[in-house]
Amino acid sequence: MRIESVEDKGTLIVLTPERFTASNPDHVALAERVRELLDRAGLLKPLQSQS
């Protein structure tokens, strides 16, 4: 896994060095695990409009 800052946009998280596919069970398992961790950390909440 690699984490990169994207200027003033936020953070890019790269999970695998190869193309991520839904047909690869390892990729699906990794995606679910990362989703759980991000959700637990409160990072998957919907964005609020700044109006």
Automatic annotation (TrEMBL):
Origin species: Myxococcus fulvus
InterPro entries given in the database record: Imm52
Pfam family membership, one: Imm52
Occurrences of domain Immunity protein (ranges): 2-47
Protein name: Immunity protein 52 domain-containing protein
Superkingdom: Bacteria
